[in-house]
Amino acid sequence: MIYSRIGGRNTTLDDPFDLRFANCLLKFSTNKFKISLLILGFMKQRLYALFLLTTVLRIVGDAIEGVSLPWHLLNKTNSLLSIAGYSLASMLPWVIFPPLIGNFLDRTEKKVRLAFLALFAQSFLAITLVRFAQDVRIFYLLISLISALDTLHRYYGFSLIAFMTLEESELQKLNAKVQTIGGVTSLFSFPIMGYLAYLFGIKLMLLDALFLLIGALLLVPYINVSVRRGESRKEKECLKIEISRKIVFAGIILILTFNFAIASARIFIFNALRTLAKGEVLYGLLRSLGTLGSLISAFGIVFIAHKFRIGILKPLVIGMMLESLAVLFLGFSLLPLLLAGVLLLSFGGEILNISFDSLFQKVIPLERLGTYRGVFDALATLIIPISQLTFAWLIEKGFNVPMLAFIAFGAGIIATLGFYVIVSDVIG
């Protein structure tokens, strides 16, 4: 029999007074738990909405930086090498810093505070860029620092979505919303910022600094919020550590093999266009077609994930298959196949990117998520130029282009099937 100590007397819970008191305590605890869940859910949604807003501000900032900075360098030096230097300064941090920043982000629960500091620091650096616009060396250094801090904001959002849910369709929807909003913002911001850069030059970076500062200030009320998963998932987290080893050691090799095959698409496109009149014009149209394909794909996932439980595995495999088929099409210098290939490449690529983000967020523990993703991103960034240099060299040496495209297609399909076996064994 269970005894309780109430009012200095030993009684059983058969006492009507004790039963009423116990029921009141139970109701109070239940209501308190429900209120806590509601507050937590509201906070998660608020942080996600703020992340979407800061993403928009960052993409507008990227458009400002992507237009005003290289054109400032070109006007100052009158050398194309300055453009190559800009590309190196902006891309090198994405090779070096992702594992370091990912690990740093994993070590703290105050991830919002780091996102605030990153945006605030970028705002300061954007102003400093205007001040040192005439010193090319300092200019390149500041560009690299801004790019490095971009990785921190990206991984903050990546961890935030993993913190919000583990349900597959929800992960797909949340990631797809980020890509959709980012794609639409990019589509409109680059032409507008291009015109403003023509009018104001490097001083347009002051507008970038303002947007970054606004984004930082929006996060101030939440800088002490802890981003972590609940203790009730401890056993699940232990399982995830074992799963993540499979993905890191086997899955990552297959994905890098796939990336090596698919990265050849850019070389095939330029090889086809260099034989055509007005190839530059057609390339611009193909870029627009690619952007459209990505937007349709991301919006489609948002809509389908809202209506149906689409999961992760099927969209991921479909995306990989479509990209593999696209590479095969691009190996033939025929305009209809070129158009179809670019559309499939962007459409399938967006499905793959969204699903791969969701896969990482589902199976990797939150305290290791940034580190593992950082290592993968660094390797994936390195594999792209290696692939493109390899295929470009083979084409220049006279290898049959359709045959190379078929080899890339085959490698993509084999990697897809291998990855499907691993992931289906992990998440079913």
UniProtKB/TrEMBL annotation:
Cited InterPro entries: MFS, MFS_trans_sf
Protein keywords: Cell membrane, Membrane, Transmembrane, Transmembrane helix
Membrane topology classification: Multi-pass membrane protein
Keyword Transmembrane: yes
Residues spanning the membrane: 37-60, 80-102, 114-132, 138-166, 178-198, 204-227, 247-269, 281-305, 312-332, 338-360, 372-395, 401-423
GO terms under cellular component: plasma membrane
Record-level Gene Ontology MF annotations: transmembrane transporter activity
First-listed, main subcellular location of the protein, grouped into a coarse class: membrane
Subcellular location: Cell membrane
Protein name as it appears in the record: MFS transporter
